[in-house]
Design goal:
Layout: E1 2-3, E2 16-17, E3 24-26, E4 28-29, E5 34-36, H1 41-49, E6 54-56, E7 67-69, E8 79-80, H2 91-94
Antiparallel strand pairs: 1-2, 2-4, 3-5, 6-7, 7-8
Length: about 110
């Protein structure tokens, strides 16, 4: 995930990329972090990351149970051995843009 510790306009090039658990690695500033995925995700995480999702192997002792999971604020059920179908309601992050008396509606929430 991306983290910007100081969002003021004068603060630039301080954002970091961080691994999403259960992957581990050292955060990196202004470049992608090098993450290591455990279990079956070590060989299969690209299926998930290519879709903007994280990989989770719920039981390293069980074969073919790795899952792709949506990354918040996107939501959706995990999918076994394939990318999940994730939904993202952009109004969650952008509702304040609408003025008083207006409501936010995101008609296409597919990611």
């Amino acid at each position: 995930t991306c983290n910007d510790p100081d969002k003021t306009p004068a603060s630039t090039n301080d954002w970091t990329c961080n691994c999403i658990a259960p992957a581990t690695g050292t955060p990196a500033t202004v470049i992608a972090a090098m993450c290591v995925n455990p279990g079956e995700c070590a060989a299969n995480s690209m299926t998930c990351t290519a879709a903007g999702q994280s990989c989770n192997d719920p039981d390293p002792m069980t074969a073919n149970d790795w899952q792709c999971e949506c990354i918040a604020p996107a939501t959706g059920a995990p999918a076994v051995m394939m990318a999940s179908t994730c939904m993202l309601d952009e109004c969650i992050a952008n509702a304040a843009t609408c003025l008083m008396g207006q409501s936010c509606n995101d008609p296409d929430q597919t990611v």
